[in-house]
Write a structure and sequence with these properties.
The protein is built from ten helices and 13 strands. The protein starts with 7 loop residues before the first helix and ends in a 27-residue tail after the last helix.
Length: 296
């Protein structure tokens, strides 16, 4: 797939982000641990083990680097901090672009990855998954004044262009919906959204939790189209095949689900109708350095 050209306005924003991101450290500092219930008994003790985690740092609200203070934030950072608090381990985050993430984990270059990764049978052939931690639906984001179509079916039956991110299940569902010729693939979700705002694409396909945030922060420009493209897809962490981390992390997720911690994290990072931060306020993450440093 060829990388699509951005609009002039997006290039200006990207340049500003690149300049501001120069001060961001290669390995972001771990954020403060979220408030949680007391540590449950019976969980495995990993003895302070360091776990090298692949992360994109460019996917709101899962992970990103703030431009104003250079700090790493997002659901992934809070969730891994809490998991390691319970298991006695230390997450060490390493940036890598999304399109190489799953292959790098499969090759053992990282201990695991977290990036809002949809659990699929095809991906299970190369990596192991944790239990799912959230279910998402896929929807279409369109311009606020869009009146040429009002449902997913009308969009499908027209000659409209669909923006999405390369290598994602959104991309796969987009191909199923309208065919490859009508899909415009970008390296980042933010670029797909900007293409819709600029009129270079007619809609973007996106997970509903992220889509609600985009609409919230661009309420004067975007809206979610009625209806679903697909529903009930589970997200999980990935590991090299046979990893001994799957069992302990599943045990921690189970405890967090039972004591309400996962629900509290969901309410914090996926607030309905608004987005915690905009793409203009974060750095480029792994896309500022296309050659990742693998786990030695």
């Amino acid at each position: 797939m060829l990388k699509e050209r951005l609009t002039v306005s997006r290039l200006i924003v990207a340049a500003a982000i690149g300049l501001a991101a120069c001060a961001v450290p290669a390995t972001p500092a771990a954020p403060a641990q979220p408030t949680a219930a007391p540590q449950p008994s019976g969980l495995p003790d990993l003895g302070g083990r360091e776990i090298v985690v692949a992360i994109e740092n460019a996917y709101i609200p899962f992970n990103y680097i703030r431009l104003d203070n250079g700090q790493a934030e997002g659901w992934d950072y809070d969730a891994l901090a809490e998991i390691c608090r319970r298991l006695n381990c230390k997450p060490v985050f390493r940036e890598i672009a999304w399109d190489g993430m799953i292959a790098a984990v499969a090759a053992g270059q990282f201990d695991m990855a977290t990036n809002g990764i949809t659990i699929t049978e095809e991906r299970k052939k190369s990596v192991d998954f944790s239990d799912g931690y959230i279910k998402v639906d896929q929807r279409l984001v369109v311009r606020i004044d869009e009146n040429r179509f009002s449902t997913v079916e009308e969009f499908k039956n027209g000659n409209f262009k669909l923006a999405t991110q390369k290598g994602t299940t959104n991309y796969d569902e987009g191909i199923k919906l309208v065919g490859e010729a009508r899909v415009i693939a970008f390296d980042e979700f933010g670029q797909a959204i900007q293409a819709v705002i600029a009129g270079d694409a007619d809609a973007a396909i996106i997970d509903d939790v992220a889509g609600q945030g985009y609409v919230g922060v661009n309420a004067d420009k975007l809206k979610l189209l009625d209806g679903l493209v697909s529903e009930g897809q589970e997200l999980g962490f990935i590991f090299p095949k046979g990893s001994d981390l799957v069992g302990p992390i599943n045990a921690a997720l189970k405890a967090m689900r039972e004591d309400g911690t996962l629900q509290r994290l969901q309410e914090k990072w996926f607030p309905k109708g608004r987005q915690v931060i905009s793409y203009d306020e974060i750095g480029p993450g792994a896309y500022d350095n296309p050659t990742p440093t693998p786990n030695p």
